[in-house]
Amino acid sequence: xxxxxxxxxxxKWFKQLRDDIVFTMExxxxxxxxxxxxxxxxxxxxxxxxxxxxxxxxxxETAIMRDGLVFEKAGVNISTVWGExxxxxxxxxxxxxDNDGGFWASGISLVMHxxxxxxxxxxxxxxxxxxxxxxxxxxxxxxxxxxxxDDTKTFHDALKTCCDQHDPEYYTQYSKWADEYFWNAHxxxxxxxxxxxxxxxxNNDDAEWDxxxxxxxxxxxxxxxxxxxxxxxxxxxxxxxxxxxxxxFRRGRYAEFNLIHDRGTVFGLKTGGNVDxxxxxxxxRVTW
Amino acid sequence: xxxxxxxxxxxKWFKQLRDDIVFTMExxxxxxxxxxxxxxxxxxxxxxxxxxxxxxxxxxETAIMRDGLVFEKAGVNISTVWGExxxxxxxxxxxxxDNDGGFWASGISLVMHxxxxxxxxxxxxxxxxxxxxxxxxxxxxxxxxxxxxDDTKTFHDALKTCCDQHDPEYYTQYSKWADEYFWNAHxxxxxxxxxxxxxxxxNNDDAEWDxxxxxxxxxxxxxxxxxxxxxxxxxxxxxxxxxxxxxxFRRGRYAEFNLIHDRGTVFGLKTGGNVDxxxxxxxxRVTW
Lengths: 288, 288
What we know:
homodimer, alpha+beta, oxygen-dependent coproporphyrinogen oxidase, seven-stranded antiparallel beta sheet, 10 strands, globular
């Protein structure tokens, strides 16, 4: 059920959310700088066209902050792409075979790698995909270097409140799905402390589209409220080289997940995506 | 064509080659130390049992040098494992379905990550696998940070000489296969400057086994002669932070290849291998 108004609304929202998140994270940088000195980190926003990369339609913008005071590397991507899935790939995507592989996809994806080992890295992504079907998907998960029960509770409580406003079943289902999805199978360990993950939230009619879009927007807004709170709790924490070394080690596990298991990464790499945009999720420095 | 004498001979050779390589690389470390001072790097050899990891038979030894003067991280693994491939996996391995998935595999695998950006990283692996079929496979490829035509020629010439002693077709076939195999598809770029790659070198009778084993041994010996020569040419080269930063960046591409594309890595992770041994190939420090 392709609907150009829906597409436009979704695409516009992802861009608005990107702007909001960029504003929030740059505010954190400024607040840090005003207390501790130094130059507040800023995002560089770079538009790209998929036509230039794979000859297929669509494009997006990467927003990346490097060497900030709080964020060592923090990328926020938005993109809107369409075209046809390869024969090999279309069987794996709902409604793509019925549609000669035709698809449209728009979304936002972010990963934050803080400098301080006590500020947890985080990931958030929401997307709207249309084949012969139409659905929303997304998720957010916290990936602390050192687990902190208060942060975990803060993060999960906020996501639960968000979910509960839309459907009493969501939090139970989607936090469980996050535990399953963000699982570093080859290490037999979780990637982090979870959050929510949802997919194939189908839009069979306009009312469902409105409901699912509203939920998807709230996941983004919730992220942009709660993660900054957690950052501000820890961004002045003191740490030493041992903590930093452990952070670099744990970032290795994060990189392994993204390169071996992450479905979004595979989706992007297999559909002629912007490799640099897709792999902006990788940590700035890693040790193995 | 399972043959316990063949299995024993192959397994013994891989261990002998490991000992030879450890000796060679530690000699390089000592020579460097005697000229420049510092403590020569040494390998730590650790036996492991697969029974402890996945409950399946087999095991091996990891030999890893960390923080050497010449080698920042250099791992050499040997392992011999057997059991049954999963239903999902056996269709992908020649002769495994005819054998209820039963397999035996023994091999050596190494990756060297030098400290000096002008000393090229290298990979070498040879293996003997038995299902209802029996074959050898292996390869070696050079992965310079800065391409150097002399080193590339030295490396390829030695492998060509080795190949030519066994079959006039080998070098042409196997260097081409290396170019195809060590291809970082998502980046549309080669991993390095190639070398040789061969697989499914079938042993249909004892004579073929002898021939293929002899070739496989020579690939290992050739590696252990030629790579040290290249290391010794460059290990005293001067470099600055810019060179080092570029090395850390290029190591990211190497890590991407291993985690996204490398068949050996997937084989290991899907067959209950020792994750730490498999991923010892990852560079010690990486930036993205």
